[in-house]
Write a structure and sequence with these properties.
The protein is an alpha/beta fold and 132 residues long. It is built from 7 helices and 4 strands, in the order βααβααααβαβ. The protein has helices at 7-14, 21-32, 40-47, 53-63, 73-88, 95-107, 117-121, and strands spanning 3-5, 36-37, 110-112, 128-129. Strands 2-1-3-4 form a 4-stranded parallel beta sheet. Helix 7 links the parallel strand 3 (110-112) and strand 4.
Length: 132
């Protein structure tokens, strides 16, 4: 089983001074098993906002070993469709969130996130949320 780790999980695993141990342990287990996946926009979010160049380089070197899932035009088109489906039901979200949903659905990945918005998306979209 492959799992797409969302930005808050990567951040918890790589950057937090006082991480939530259960999240950190579960992310570590997925990484050790070769099951952790990432996409470029998540990589960008993880690295964005790191003020120290030294810390930026440390985090970048830690995640460079995880190749990005290749994104296609269809992934972006499906993300737009998912955005529209959710919006029509009164559920708002970011473009990145819907791209995560699109990639997860297309590649049969579970989503490991701490973002409660994904629970709302799951009311409309056939996404699988990873439970830890």
């Amino acid at each position: 089983m492959s799992v797409l780790l969302d930005t808050p999980v990567w951040s918890e695993f790589l950057q937090r001074r006082s991480p939530v141990e259960a999240v950190q342990n579960e992310a570590d287990a997925l990484i050790q098993a070769g099951s952790a996946r990432i996409i470029g926009p998540i990589r960008q979010e993880v690295l964005s906002g790191i003020q120290s160049l030294e810390r930026f380089e440390v985090v970048r070197s830690q995640i460079q070993f995880f190749p990005d899932e290749e994104l296609t035009a269809e992934d972006f088109e499906m993300a737009a469709m998912h955005f529209n489906q959710c919006r029509s039901r009164g559920i708002q979200g970011s473009n990145t969130d819907f791209l995560i949903c699109s990639v997860a659905i297309a590649r049969d990945l579970s989503i490991f996130t701490l973002d409660k918005d994904f629970e709302r998306y799951a009311e409309v979209l056939p996404i699988k949320l990873y439970k830890y």
